[in-house]
Amino acid sequence: MRYFVVLFGILLFVTTDCNRASGQVQRDTIRITPQTSGVDASFRGLAVRSMKEAWITGSKGTVIRTLDGGRTWNPIVVPGANDLDFRDVEVLPDGTVVLMSIGSGNASRILRSTNAGTTWKTVLTNAEPNGFFDGMTFTQDGRNGLLFGDPINGRMDMYRTDDHGVTWRRVAERLRPPLEKGEYGFAASGTGVVMMGKSIWIATGGSVARVLHSADDGATWKAHTTPVRSGNESSGIFSIDFVDPRTAVVVGGNYLRPEVDRDNIARSIDGGITWAIVPSVRMPHKACVRSLGKGRLLTCGRTGVAFSSDAGLTWEQITTDSYFTLAVDKDSATGFLAGRDGHVARFDLVTVNRK
């Protein structure tokens, strides 16, 4: 046994020494493998249950599912949903699937399935003519959930569930955060909200780009300004995620001018209270950002996919191919990307040697 330990140490030393001598450094990066979805929908919702199982949703009531890591994708029929646009999907730990559709008034709905999409039940329909759902999220155990939408009477619309999405109750108006005139959320990829313990963060855009934060499970709210591009209906924060309890990243920009690569990404290192642009980062518009764990982040949009291994301080452009949403299985750092025209891809974290 001692012989093998010594031999392994020698080999490790020699390999490391050779890499140094050749100027090679090992770095993490992302490998993207395009897949065939079999449909032509515009995808915006994506949920990963494991490195084998994922659900993708989009326009024309489209829902597809893989059980083999994306080698095959199977359509899931949602009766009566041909005119719905499913912008968010969540798969709870017990396998329950929750869909969110968007649109004015009753086009915004929540549907639920407990048998892998064999049957569906509509559990919430927006009764407000001016209502518009933007995104939802659930706690890790899947019991408690939060749904937010465009403002009603100057305050963010909001619903809660405490029974795995079976029933939803509208949050009292006095408990909903007030918004500035022209401020709202974006239903870009269902990733504009984060819940951790009793803390909730919701990203906004439009006239201002802010992060609304509650530290007491929604009893009170504080609004924190960000330097992300805003000031019109097409600008603001489109997605938010946390690297760790203190470090967060938001992405967005102006989706009508996606090539503009300034003021589209910001970081916080104090739990989402203060935000700053990373001066050295030139990032065109992005619609979704997700943590892969251990300080690694992936972001995507119509301008391509970028990867960071240092909590958002620097970024590597992986591809210019367009994707609108992504989700990851953090145990394996494997996940999926989806976008327009039925485009789907699998991504894997890999280590490469670079000079």
Description:
This protein has a domain at 177-322. It has 1 helix and 30 strands. The chain has one helix at residues 2-21; strands spanning 25-35, 43-48, 54-58, 63-66, 74-75, 85-91, 97-102, 109-113, 121-125, 133-138, 145-152, 155-161, 169-170, 183-184, 193-196, 199-203, 205-206, 210-214, 222-225, 235-242, 248-254, 265-268, 276-277, 288-293, 296-301, 304-308, 316-319, 325-329, 334-338, 344-354. The longest helix is centred in the N-terminal third of the chain and has 20 residues, at 2-21. It is globular. The two termini are 35 Å apart.
Structural class: mainly beta
The fraction of residues assigned to DSSP E strands is 35-45%
Rg (C-alpha, Å): 21 Å
Q: Which stretches are poorly predicted, pLDDT < 50 over at least 5 residues?
A: 1-18
| Gross morphology | globular
Major sheet: arrangement of strands = 1-30-29-28
How many E strands? 30
What percent of residues adopt helix (DSSP H or I)?
A: under 10%
Ends apart, CA distance between termini: 35 Å
* Sheet with most strands: 4 strands, antiparallel
**What's the total helix number?**
1
If you average the pLDDT, what whole number results?
Answer: 93
List the topology elements.
Blueprint: H1 2-21, E1 25-35, E2 43-48, E3 54-58, E4 63-66, E5 74-75, E6 85-91, E7 97-102, E8 109-113, E9 121-125, E10 133-138, E11 145-152, E12 155-161, E13 169-170, E14 183-184, E15 193-196, E16 199-203, E17 205-206, E18 210-214, E19 222-225, E20 235-242, E21 248-254, E22 265-268, E23 276-277, E24 288-293, E25 296-301, E26 304-308, E27 316-319, E28 325-329, E29 334-338, E30 344-354
Antiparallel strand pairs: 1-30, 2-3, 3-4, 4-5, 6-7, 7-8, 8-9, 10-11, 11-12, 12-13, 14-17, 15-16, 16-18, 18-19, 20-21, 21-22, 22-23, 24-25, 25-26, 26-27, 28-29, 29-30
